[in-house]
């Protein structure tokens, strides 16, 4: 769909609007060093196990609004855990009050979990399919580097569940399922925990008001052909929110409850994913060292910046092969993290302004007609009647010189052919 | 905080390695 040189990238306008069918593409074979590979698809794309011919995809304004919600949630959490930024953590208690259920001990007490607000969620997420329990059943879950705790909706769904496509996980049908005890140190690994009848409770509340509450449990998790015994996850008995038709979420953050950390002995704390160029494509999620191949450009993970998130050091931006004049301090003041769930890259205001100006200059030089802003996107073009367009390349530069030369599929976000926008947005200031 | 979003990550192998404390970007991975 595209070609590129150092300063311009050729984009087929038709590639911005993939068809409704899942193309018969070759699977991405496992890299030599990766231990386990799963297929990644867009939750709402035609290759998704959750796809429904009559299902309604979220509208662009809904996706971008949810994305903004996720970003604000991340900003709140970063601010709360690092003391940086203008926003402050907001308390948002959840009262799970799980009731007695088959297979679970009863308790006369009503647990109250002080849920941590600010976990981020977005409708623009990608999903993978995992196995859970013995025998294993398949569950399609969002994978998320911006949170730690994995969870699925569980039977008997004591309080409430949203509608998911696959059957609910049923602990009673798994011979290896067990609730985590309140006295188990693993219960303390949770950001928000409680106790009922000796069983550990978890709760996660997301920034958009979505939440999941239930028993913290352990069972065998199967990813690709690997079994991870005793994997701890949330067995959700009270779940509500914008989770689509997924069965739950896989947390890949840096916290103790994340899959990354729980499977550290098996995979060395390493994983890699590749997101496809279009929502009708497929990518992969690999676990194990070396999973990204030998051509990866590396930058330090700034692990001391705060919990959960993957902080890196962005140092500059190039547009059309030319360095955009942005002081490095603009990036170092705010900090940078890489996130699988945020759709549109957010930049400090000064950096975004310089980027959009340089991009607009390049587009203007080619005579492309501008279009109105859309939601958080303010640098937009009308490609009506055009089959191919030539875009200025955009590169993000990180500490150590690692460079992410954004693929042509990731430079713009298409609302329609008449409104295709630079897929970056401003944080509104330089401190957030 | 600046956030590198998933639109910009498309087609890259994005590597996270807690042991080596590195994040990596491998072009043309899918």
Summarize the structure in words.
With 432 residues, chain A is mainly beta. Chain A is built from five helices and 28 strands. Helix content of chain A is 13%, strand content 33%. Chain A has a six-stranded mixed beta barrel with strand order 4-5-12-6-11-10. In chain A, strands 18-17-24-25 form a four-stranded antiparallel β-sheet. A four-stranded antiparallel β-sheet of chain A has the order 21-22-27-26. The model of chain A is unreliable at 85-118 (pLDDT under 50). Chain B is mainly β. Helix content of chain B is 13%, strand content 43%. Chain B contains one helix and three strands; from the N terminus they run βαββ. In chain B, strands 2-3 form a two-stranded antiparallel ribbon. The radius of gyration of chain B is 10 Å and the shape is flat. Chains A and B meet through α1, β13, β14, β15 and β19 of A and β1, α1, β2 and β3 of B.
Mean pLDDT of chain A: 87
Q: Spell out the helices and strands of chain B N to C.
A: EHEE
Greatest interface: A-B, 78 and 29 residues
Largest sheet of chain A: 6 strands, mixed, barrel
Strand arrangement in the largest pleated sheet of chain B: 2-3
Discrete helix count of chain A? 5
How much helical structure, as a percent, in the residues of chain A?
Answer: 10-25%
Report mean pLDDT of chain B, rounded to a whole number: 96
* Main β-sheet, spatial strand arrangement of chain A: 4-5-12-6-11-10
Strand content of chain A: 25-35%
Would you tell me the structural class of the helices and strands of chain A? mainly beta
Largest sheet of chain B: 2 strands, antiparallel
Low-confidence parts of chain B, pLDDT < 50 over ≥5 residues?
none
The Rg value of chain B, from CA coordinates, equals: 10 Å
